[in-house]
Specification:
Blueprint (H helix, E strand, L loop, with lengths): L2 H12 L11 H12 L17 H4 L3 H10 L22 H12 L27 E4 L3 E3 L6 E8 L6 E9 L6 E9 L4 H9 L1 H9 E4 L2 E4 L8 E2 L18 E6 L3 E2 L1 E2 L4 E5 L4 E8 L7 E3 L2 E6 L6 E2 L1 E6 L12 E8 L4 E9 L4 E9 L5 E7 L10 E9 L4 E8 L27 E8 L15 E3 L8
Parallel strand pairs: 8-18, 12-16
Antiparallel strand pairs: 1-15, 2-14, 3-13, 4-11, 4-12, 4-15, 5-9, 5-13, 6-7, 10-25, 17-24, 18-23, 19-22, 19-24, 20-21, 20-23
The structure holds heme C (HEC).
Length: about 475
Amino acid sequence: MSFRSLLLIVAVAATPAVSPSAEVTFSHDVAPILYKHCVSCHHPNDIAPMSLLTYKDARPWAAAIKQAIVTGVMPPWKADPKYGHWSNDARLSESEKNTILAWVNGAKLEGNPKDMPASPEFPDGWKVGKPDAVIAIPEHKLEAKGPDEYSYITVPTNFTEDKWIVAAELRPGNRKVVHHAHVFVVEPETDASKEKKEDNPAKAYSKWLQIHEGTLSFIRPDAPVIDDGCLKDDNGAFPGNAQSDLGSLISSFLPGREADVYPPGTARLVKAGSKVNFQIHYSKATGKPETDITSVGLVFAKEPPKQVARRIDLSNHMFLIPAGDPNHEVTECHTFQRDMYITSLTPHMHLRGKAMRMEVTYPDGQKETLLNVPAYDFNWQITYRTEKPIFIPKGTRLKIDAHFDNSPNNRANPDPTKIIRWGAASEVEMMDGWVEYVDAVPGQEPPVTVTAGVRQSKADLNPNH
Ligand code: HEC
């Protein structure tokens, strides 16, 4: 018996799903799987440390690939498979796993290069297609050293008429310094809405609760503490829904997040005269002076949408995480006031985020866990896009249950001796669940959900900033 066939038998014994007659080769069997699940990040000049495009690229990483697949570290995906079905589910199937393992455990043959699938293309352009409008910040200069900066930069859209947006892509100008970014639409303020704000005591209290240091906002250290956001609806959120002061979020650039493409037939409205507010987290990782021109590309609807794509950000702002606490629980509850379909869910916490579960109680009392992320990772903030929109009848209550690890065992923890409250910087915390949805219209089919298909970025691999 030849050495090669002996190895093949060993490989087959370890992975019974592959038939003994199949000689697993890179070109024929492994490359198609890597092209489907890995190379969007693992190609030159992207966020992963090495390319996996060719046999030559991948062969030295065989053992590491096996390790990453067996442990489930790669491809990055954090949702508990027990709950929900997601259109952007990144996981390998069992047979795909077995094929790669058979190759790694076996002779790691290249096979016939003619069997290689067509090499995927990575156009250096916009992932959502050619935008109809690109709105950019003026050049932003960063000094070589110093603390992280949160910049809030507002730019006019110059839209003279209302626009329907079907896709939005936030593109960092300088990937070395843009850690993450959000972009919000700020609607033109009418005289009536100005008045309402000043007279609203809840809004005035919200304003009092927040302090600002430079461009960063934090909660006052002496603000009342509310960890149980479910005692009544939105119990821990800033009163008067202060988030809406920033306008409505339309796109984010976050580690592991795709561009925002709304379900076909739906669109977001950007009113004439609106401004765009960029919130950009800069980290001075390079030690050199840098410049950045971050921009957002917007794709307009070709025809009026059947449905408005909507989004609500549910938060607890009032929590307090004790120093050293390894498993501190913070909750937020919200009751939806109309029939709707959820199209995506995104947990958002910072470096002490440990786990998050989103569970609904339907009006008939039935409970259902929509999403469970048992090991949250700040470096992989994934938007979970529903395979089919989830129907949520009016009166359904969503509970968001977050846990934080402020102990020294959390390797990402910048300082376990600190008491932690809400704030915009990564060194303090946030507790958010972002929900994208459309209203359920009687007689109208729910929208089909889609995924941009391209992972946008893992902006920074260093969890310490
Ligand atoms: C969303 C982007 C993305 C996808 C998809 C992805 N990776 Fe990765 N991969 C990374 C990044 C970034 C790193 C660097 C380490 C980290 O941050 O976790 C990495 C690290 C690795 C490593 C460890 C390298 C080392 O230094 O030891 C291996 C092995 C790996 N990936 C294999 C894969 C395989 C195999 C797939 C597909 C099944 C895959 N990756 C899919 C982004 C990705």
